[in-house]
Amino acid sequence: MPQVAVQINGKTYRMACDEGQEAHLLDLAQRFDRTITQLKGSFGEIGDQRLTVMAGVMVTDELVALQHKITGLESELAKLRSGDDDARDIHLAEALDKTSSKVEAISKKLVDAV
Length: 114
Fold this sequence. Notes:
The chain is mostly helical. The protein has helices at 22-43, 48-82, 85-113; strands at residues 3-8, 11-16. Helix 1 crosses helix 2 (48-82). The longest helix has 35 residues, at 48-82.
């Protein structure tokens, strides 16, 4: 099992991962480190453990918000699938446009947050 050295808050941690997942793990660690850095910029040095807990809560909050959005999109999709063909085609085009806008907004939010 490969191991990767990641840097979070100026400290190096060795982590194991599945074969071929090294780059993904490094990316995740870099994103989490950016969240820690943002918190340090906002709150200063408040202790490693508190920073880590706050960053974990922030990331979990983003995850829950995205899960709610996915649930809403799945609900919209189910409604579209249950309609008649002509109405469904019209609604599908509208839904695709709305979904595209939502995905772009979510993507921007994630990029800005990390």
